[in-house]
Design a protein that fits this description.
The complex is a heterodimer. Chain A has five helices and seven strands. Chain A is α/β, with parallel strands linked by helices. The longest helix of chain A has 11 residues. Chain A starts with a helix and ends in a 23-residue tail after the last helix. At the A-B interface, helix 2 of A face helix 1, helix 3, strand 1 and helix 11 of B.
């Protein structure tokens, strides 16, 4: 299932808080790359991983349900094997997240259905960092074909 | 709403180039700078770690070059591109990202002479051995593949033999061996042929030729399809922590643009054959009119081929656009819009007549290039392929009487007129 540019832009533009499930504290891991990038671009990252106390200066929670109620999660971003996705979709619904996002290479239609039936938007098999860089600028600096065609001046500067 | 699939001509004008965010400039700005300020040491660290996208140093990346990279990647139907200082550098960067000492390359023997020398001389000095094979029978590639083979290489249209490769057959052979097919698509251009659609994995270009079309700048490009499975066990350099870039695993971290990122951050960064941003601007200008120019190049070349084919002073013509050419069927499959802008022919009277022909032309330019808007002629045996011995020349398809012509965009009747008068003079002693 592909998600169009307009939808991805709306999701990335409206979201502020991202719970990253399976975030590693090792700087060279893709999950850390993505979370650090999103944090650098103004999003609050809430790490979810039972193995760590703190990552990227934020307290790390063992599970989505352990995140305090006063933190409103917009996106649940999943860096876990596909078979672990359905229970995470139930959790994302339970904590009132708005978007259930499975990272690049993770496809689980059952989990997507659970999230959709719970009223969440679903993005599957995309990297949150790559899509942000593709649509908000940056990825183009690395020679990647972004698919963006426009004669409007971008309202953002790459940093 | 599903994203629109824009047409090739639209992509030639727009892909990779939004109006400039800082100024609103509609033309591509030339970012003539070596370096870029960091906002903080943490920002610098993120850039060096590749955790954020951004510019560090123009040897590796530059915003003007990036526009050209994205436009070429898009036009080829690939995922990502990298531009470098020349077509030779493009091959070198692509192949040295894949191969190291002890590895082997299997390549078509019908290559541009400089490419043949790069593989046969420079790569052998580095411990990379190339097996050259006759590409007409794709099975020849399969026979030459060994466990040490890391890539298969060929040109869409061989220079100067004008032979057309059966890309999908060779791609299947490469994939059966778990290695990528690298195609030099310089003579095809993405307008006439998109090798990724036929199974190629990496495309390289001399953008000096039809991509630019103006003969003003030297440059090259490497483009990846984004579809090769680098985790098949044969490419630890893509999957294991990089010694050349502090432990990054390129395939895991960058996925379908991991190869180009490795080529950029390891090979281009450490070997250094960068493209100037001014050149990138000129190539972007060229690409805007690529479809119009290629249509005319192909029409004019076919007309010249027919003219020569009927001429009593011409002993043979090689152009895959001619129906009786042995590569005509392959050309119809892989180059349906036209068989390109180059033909070769032999003049009655052999080498001496060939030389007199070239020296008698009034505006056909005698020089070592192809793909210019102007018509170009050369005698390969004494110029582009003179570094090869006679046997190697024959293997590359070069005979002593051969003249190569890159047919330009002048008035067709004028081109035919200059050929006619030079042919007449070629017979004078």
């Amino acid at each position: 299932m592909s998600t169009d540019i307009e939808t991805l832009r709306r999701i990335l533009g409206a979201s502020q808080v991202i719970a990253v499930v399976g975030l590693s504290a090792n700087w060279w891991r893709p999950s850390y790359f993505a979370a650090k990038y999103m944090q650098d671009h103004g999003y609050r990252i809430i790490p979810v991983n039972p193995n760590y106390k703190e990552i990227l200066g934020e307290r790390c929670y063992p599970s989505l349900e352990d995140i305090p109620d006063d933190i409103n999660i917009d996106i649940v971003d999943v860096f876990q094997r596909a078979e672990l996705a359905p229970p995470l979709a139930h959790s994302a619904v339970a904590i009132g997240a708005k978007i259930f996002w499975l990272q690049l290479g993770i496809v689980n239609d059952e989990a997507a259905d659970i999230a959709r039936q719970g009223g969440l938007g679903v993005v599957m098999d995309y990297c949150v960092k790559i899509e942000h860089g593709r649509l908000m600028g940056g990825l183009n600096l690395f020679g990647v074909s972004t698919g963006v065609i426009s004669a409007k001046r971008p309202k953002w500067l790459v940093y | 709403m599903a994203d629109r699939e824009f047409g090739f001509e639209t992509q030639c004008l727009h892909a990779g180039q939004l109006p400039d965010a800082a100024t609103g400039a509609r033309a591509a700005p030339i970012y003539q700078t070596t370096s870029y300020v960091f906002d903080s040491t943490d920002h610098a660290a993120s850039l060096f770690n590749l955790q954020t996208f951004g510019n560090v140093y123009s040897r590796m990346m530059n915003p003007t070059n990036a526009m050209l990279e994205e436009r070429l990647a898009t036009l080829e139907g690939g995922r990502a591109g990298l531009v470098v200082g020349s077509g030779m550098a493009a091959q070198m960067v692509a192949l040295l990202t894949l191969l190291e000492s002890g590895d082997e390359l299997v390549s078509a023997s019908t290559l541009y002479g400089g490419t043949y020398s790069q593989f046969d001389y420079s790569f052998r000095r580095m411990g990379i051995n190339t097996h050259f094979v006759d590409p007409d029978d794709p099975e020849n590639f399969a026979k030459a593949i060994t466990p040490a083979t890391k890539a298969v290489y060929a040109e869409t249209i061989g220079n100067p033999l004008n032979n057309v490769l059966d890309i999908s057959a060779v791609a299947k052979i490469a994939h059966d061996a778990g290695v990528p097919l690298v195609i030099d698509n310089t003579f095809g251009t993405p307008y006439l042929c998109r090798p990724f659609e036929h199974g190629a994995d990496i495309v390289v270009h001399s953008v000096t030729k039809w991509i630019g079309g103006h003969g003003s700048s030297i440059g090259g490009a490497v483009i990846e399809s984004g579809k090769f499975p680098w985790d098949n066990g044969k490419f630890p350099g893509m999957t294991e922590p990089s010694k050349g870039y502090h432990g990054i695993r390129f395939y895991e971290t960058f996925g379908d643009f991991g190869f180009v990122t490795k080529a950029r951050m390891e090979t281009l960064r450490t070997l250094g054959p960068s493209m100037s941003p001014l050149s990138a601007f000129l190539f972007l200008q060229g690409l805007e009119t690529l479809p119009l120019r290629m249509d005319r190049h192909c029409t004019n070349t076919l007309a010249v081929a027919r003219f020569l084919d009927d001429h009593p002073l011409v002993s043979w013509v090689k152009y895959a656009g001619l129906p009786d050419n042995p590569y005509h069927q392959l050309a119809q499959k892989y180059l349906p819009k036209g068989a390109g802008g180059v033909l070769t022919f032999g003049i009655r009277g052999g080498q001496a007549a060939g030389i007199r022909f070239i020296e008698s032309a009034q505006f056909l330019s005698h020089l070592a290039n192809v793909g210019d808007a102007k018509t170009l002629v050369i005698h390969p045996a004494s110029t582009t392929h003179r570094q090869l011995n006679e046997e190697e020349q024959a293997s590359a398809g070069v005979s002593p009487d051969m003249v190569r012509m890159s047919v330009g965009l002048e008035t067709l009747d004028d081109i035919l007129w200059d050929i006619e008068q030079a042919l007449a003079k070629s017979q004078e002693s």
